[in-house]
Amino acid sequence: MKLLTQLSALLSLLIIASTCHAKASPYPAATTELTIHSQGKRMSGFIYHPQGAGPHPTILLLHGYPGNEKNLDFAQAMRAKGWNVAFFHYRGAWGSEGQFSFSNAEQDVQAVLHYLSDPKKATELRVNPTLISTVGHSMGGHMSIAGILDNAAVNCSVAWDGANLGANGVGFINDPNTDIPWKSYSDSLFMLNSWSGAKAQQETKQFASELDLLNRAKNINARPVLLIGANTTVIPMELHIEPLYQALKATPNSQVTYQVIKDDHSFSASRAELINTTAKFLTKNCK
Questions:
Q1: With a threshold of 0.85, does the pTM exceed it?
Q2: Which CATH class is domain 29-285?
Q3: How confident is the model at residue 182 (pLDDT cuts 50, 70, 90)?
Q4: Spatial separation of the C-alpha atoms in residues 194 and 109, rounded to whole Å
């Protein structure tokens, strides 16, 4: 009798295991490492896949300067909501080949967008190439807005306390209204190859007009944009965010939203609010 009971229990376990295996998705949530080329240099990255065959709406998540805060809690949250989230390091940043610069980073964003929307690669990565949005923090906020303004195929854009690298003709490195010593801070960024405070200062002075997002605002073409500011002087809102909001709002049929979360530059105490606000915007407008 005892043996029969044990055999019955074992059979039940085998049936349960077989049922669970049968229900397992052939397209589970996963992570794929990426090597993306920009101007002949290799950039490291990865993409978080949600469960399901897709194709899925996709977010290109863009880190700031230099990228210590990567916002991967947002990436995981959006994967759970059915989004692909791609992340990469710009040329010359964190081991990616080449030299870092702000202009190079703008080019790199476009290289990744083209990579994700390539028909063969999109199929492989379960990406819906008609539903690609950009989200970025700080310098990555600039890259997110530049990404949509320079690429008519991008669906939506979000910037979290985003810089305008050419703001007011001086750029954020030379901004007298911030309390961050950007030049000396830039000298400490050993993870950015061939970079220094002097180079940062020179680039933002020499190419301020080209880097100024206001000069490209007309390219938005009624696509949805969300700007979230933080009430700090790291990125002074009155110089970087509010003029960009006004420039985008002045375009025909604008769909730009601006709000402030009272927190530090990285939204350290407001992660849930930041993620939920962004997710609600993307779900409503961008998929």
A1: yes
A2: alpha beta
A3: confident
A4: 20
